[in-house]
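Bit of a strange request maybe. I'm writing a small parser for structure token strings and I need a real example to test against, not something I typed by hand. Could someone generate the tokens for this chain?
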Amino acid sequence: MFTDSPRVGAIVVRALPVVLLACASAKAQNCPPLPDASDVFVFEDLANPSKSYSIDPGLEFTPDRRPVAVVAPYNGSYSDTNPMGWVGWFRDAETSGPELVQRLDDAWDAGFRRICLNRPGGILRDNDMVQMSMFFYLEQARRQAYTVHMRNWIEQKRQIDPDLEVGLFIGSRHNSPCTPCLEPTGVLSPTEDCTDDPHYMSGWQGRLDAATRQSAEWTYQNTSPFLNNGVDALWFDSASLRGNTTGVISMRDSILALQHNPDYAGVHIGGEAVPEGVTVNGQWQPNPAVLKAPWIALHRFFLQDSRAGEVYDPATTEVGVAFMKPDVNPAYDIRDIADFRDRGYVCWSWRAFSFDFMQRTHDGEDNAFYEAVIRDGTLADFNGDEQVTIEDLLDFLERVTSPAPPVLRPAIWDGDVNNDDRRDFADVIFYLQAYAQDAP
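Reply from user aminoacidic:
Good idea to test on real output. This should exercise your parser:
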């Protein structure tokens, strides 16, 4: 038997002193104080055994099966006045903090206890010097959206639910946090000829590598401003590849290694996309990496012919499927989300597009999803399409009489509309009352 939430204690992050690191050129004179990463741990660093770590065979990967809500400060809507691709509500630095808290509240109120920020520092358009987090390029007010507003929000909510997880979806490419160049005024300079750091590595070379000290230092400097302000999960984009690296180990192996790095004790670390399965004696099996770390990919990724129909064991894996807007290709509805849930996936709701579906297909240990539906008075909308029609009644009757789903606790979509973890005639009476009240 497994539990939805594996969280057993507080995150442990080293509080390193902050020092000002020298930057290489006049363009980077405004390089802000960076976390001192001189004593970070490096995977199997035989030259420095006191700061070396290895994979602990006794430390088993514990999947977190709770669904995830994505809050997206970045959405790629670039313009001359929006060079970092901020979503509309995050473009004004002065109001970015309260706006962020509002979106965090929306996810919390909807019942989510796992939240992930998409690219919280934005991304420079068409620039291969993009950082993991871009934190050090943010204006002071926008930094405070995370160091003050987000931090306070996390502290308050964890007093209610200590298992709250707040993560980042960030890049696996990195360089010194002072690259690309900062002008002396603190603003971004033009991207051309802006490689002002002597350690700058272009393209695929500047990738996550847990066994290289330079990479370990940059990874820590890029992530610690968030980890030290309540974030306790890191998801690295494009990190499942085995090749395309000039480092010691691949990005995929780096994700596996980071599970054991003392610098990230208590941090949930995963990668995108999902490593391909393997065939053993003619039978498909999940990639061994899936049994050692969490992974995520977009919904359309799993609709490829080579990936369609994959099934994962929820007791040993955490394979996330992220649903974007439901009305764009590939379109989906609540049945698709329930199907992925029943095949062992962890469902991610990208922004608020699929909150209604998630609330009805998942029954968290704290009943937060169910309570949100009851509070909002939307139970009669059984299929979560934001309208009450005869289809809701027909869907309910079909689901409540169908075979029990392979989940620990049945949810609304499974016919347990009174939330007593059973499906019986009491649910029929309960739903008919709600439907009669709200049906047109």
